[in-house]
């Protein structure tokens, strides 16, 4: 095992890349999908299951963890890895995005953001320095800069203002992070749907010579084509030798299209959240198990899956569990969805290595389309309510 | 594997016995604790976990399953074993107890009971014959007679009336069940807290020559001493060569005391329900993980446990999960509780086989008392709210 952070691109196919991030806690095979472990748990999953599916890294949320159980408490208990029984790499977000989306009474100024907890109304503040401090207390392997993420659509002025503030915060985070050989801090490209601002943000962050670059502020409700255009806009300005992380994305189709455009890392609550709400993602598209049409269906989600949940339980049983609001329904569908996401990533990595990505993408989309044609599934790109 | 139902007592120690029920679907080691799989799932557990803990049989509830997904549907899907991925023995209750406790607008007469579903208000009826038919459709290995279970305390007249009705229903269930070599139907001794009625019920059921005998209508709020006295009253009248099942019991202390008095089988929602509500049962007593005193405790519930959930997660982490209402908290505590219950049963079986049951009971109670003395735990006999 290595004692420092490194990234190697092993193969490319068009703009797509496959490679490895090496860190003291393990190797992250890219393109990678990172299951979201919001409050120190990937919801409804035992950590060893998450690893067994092929996830090399999970995401933790600073906003949730700073409020409960608290970063200092996690540190005193040995760090987030020990706390949640996940000895492999952890990436943490900076807290900024969830402060905007979950907390009340936010006040943003040059210094940072002040907000009230959605749990108990208590007042907290988050500065670039405090965000990095918290991520350090948690023991995070890949830490994200604090940024301001504005809602889209928004005025170009507001988007530009937030992008410039985020750049100044990136610099402060870089200083606060300092040198930590086994860990990395990533910057976040902002700029909304404005190409000029995206390019400026990317160039300025690259000047900071960070370990990796995220594209933030996307998948916040804009059409997929806007998101993909922003990736295409930013990609040429990011160094080839650094990992690229598209934050909060996405559907299987979003992931496939983003990998084609050179993205290396993804995180999204979709497979876990959808699993808790009765939706399955499979090779044959997206299925709503709540639907009465599954009540008498003895077939599993995918008899050829390597995942026990996908292969060994009938749709009729999953339908029954979902209708009965049984915890096992959430457990099985979360498990199956994460398995499908990891299977998709493994397929993408293999296809890139074999220089047959376009064929793989076509086969994958044909599988989803077949499910829709057979009346079994809905398009995978559609976001569930 | 055998093709018929049999029970063998392998060893005794005082009134306590250890033995084996053999059936086509597997061997049930007694004394046995049967996890409750209400709606075709032991809540928050994968079926293979339940088996791995040492559970040889699970319980299914006719009331829940007849309402959703429906007995005929389960039959058309291949039976309850296939439906819920549990190929081992299943015992089903008759539905009577939960009709009384969960449904609205009950009408009981000689023929059976009519009631409204708690799910959608639809009207259903359950007769002795229909209960056995449903249990057959489910494919249940051990089926229970329909009985009328009255609340305690109650008038002797009401208790006697219900006991006599239950006896007539036992006879009708016996006829409806007929001869099913690989399966068994058990009768249920009723009679409230009235010794005379309990004895009469037991004797009349024994005259029916059933495959096993349950003691019903206990653990419904009466003091433990009343329950134990009723077991002592009934036990001499039950045949030594048939299994004895104390329905709906109980706390670890209830189980230990009942095993001492000759009971072979138990079921109870306590370990699973308590697990979903933040309570752990361990060798050191009962712990409420919601309590703030665990917030900084890095120690696991029991470092010597064979169960991963009990051994590998800190109390601080479990506390965090419970406070955050995370599904993983329910999963880990349910797992740990069922592990402790199965560990206790294995300990009881071994102690009886080695004729050291009283020593084992004393050691077990000393463990619980030590937890209470150390301020770590609450008495295990106390029923959580």
Could you characterize what this model shows?
Chain A has 385 residues and is α/β, with parallel strands linked by helices. Chain A has two domains: 6-267, Alpha-Beta Barrel (TIM Barrel), CATH 3.20.20.105; 274-373, no CATH class. Helix content of chain A is 42%, strand content 18%. Chain A has 15 helices and 16 strands. The first copy, chain A, has helices at 47-52, 62-67, 71-76, 80-83, 96-102, 128-138, 156-177, 195-207, 224-234, 252-260, 270-276, 308-312, 315-323, 327-353, 357-373, and strands spanning 6-13, 16-23, 26-30, 32-34, 58-60, 90-92, 104-108, 113-116, 123-126, 142-144, 184-189, 212-215, 244-246, 265-267, 279-282, 285-288. The first copy, chain A, has an eight-stranded parallel β-sheet with strand order 4-14-13-12-11-10-6-5. A three-stranded antiparallel β-sheet of chain A has the order 1-2-3. A three-stranded antiparallel β-sheet of chain A has the order 7-8-9. In chain A, a hairpin with a 6-residue loop joins strand 8 (113-116) and strand 9. In chain A, helix 6 crosses helix 7 (156-177), helix 7 (156-177) packs parallel to helix 8 and helix 14 packs antiparallel against helix 15 (357-373). The first copy, chain A, is globular. The interface between A and B is medium-sized, with 35 and 34 residues. Chains A, B: The active site is at residues 93, 267.
């Amino acid at each position: 095992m290595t004692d420092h952070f490194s990234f190697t691109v092993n193969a490319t196919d068009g703009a797509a890349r496959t490679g490895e991030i090496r860190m003291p806690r393990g190797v992250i095979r890219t393109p990678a999908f990172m299951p979201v472990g919001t409050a120190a748990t990937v919801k409804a999953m035992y950590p060893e299951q998450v690893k067994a599916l092929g996830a090399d890294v999970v995401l933790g949320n600073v906003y949730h963890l700073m409020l409960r159980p608290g970063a200092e408490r996690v540190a005193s208990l040995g760090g987030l890895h020990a706390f949640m029984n996940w000895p492999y790499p952890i990436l943490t977000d900076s807290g900024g995005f969830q402060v905007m989306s979950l907390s009340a009474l936010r006040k943003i100024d040059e210094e940072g953001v002040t907000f009230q907890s959605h749990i108990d109304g208590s007042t907290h503040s988050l500065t670039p320095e405090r965000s990095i401090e918290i991520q350090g207390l948690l023991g995070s392997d890949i830490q994200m800069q604090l940024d301001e993420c504005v809602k889209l659509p928004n005025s170009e002025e507001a988007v530009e203002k937030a992008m410039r503030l985020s750049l100044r915060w990136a610099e402060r985070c870089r200083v606060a992070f300092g040198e930590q050989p086994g860990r990395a801090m990533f910057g976040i490209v902002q700029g909304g749907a404005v190409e000029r601002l995206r390019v400026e943000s990317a160039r300025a962050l690259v000047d900071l010579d960070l370990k990796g670059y995220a594209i933030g502020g996307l998948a916040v409700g804009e059409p997929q084509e806007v998101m993909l255009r922003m990736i295409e806009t930013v990609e040429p300005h990011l160094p080839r030798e650094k990992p690229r992380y598209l934050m909060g994305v996405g559907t299987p189709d979003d992931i496939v299209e983003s990998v084609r455009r050179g993205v290396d890392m993804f995180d999204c609550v979709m497979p876990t959240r959808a699993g808790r709400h009765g939706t399955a993602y499979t090779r044959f598209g997206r299925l709503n198990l709540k639907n009465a049409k599954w009540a008498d269906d003895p077939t599993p989600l995918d008899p050829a899956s390597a995942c026990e949940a996908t292969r060994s339980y009938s749709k009729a049983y999953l339908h029954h569990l979902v209708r009965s609001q049984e915890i096992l329904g959430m457990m099985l569908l979360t498990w199956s969805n994460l398995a499908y996401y990891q299977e998709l990533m493994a397929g993408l990595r293999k296809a890139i290595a074999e220089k047959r990505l376009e064929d793989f993408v076509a086969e994958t989309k044909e599988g989803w389309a077949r499910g829709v044609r057979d009346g079994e599934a809905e398009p995978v790109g559609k976001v569930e309510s």
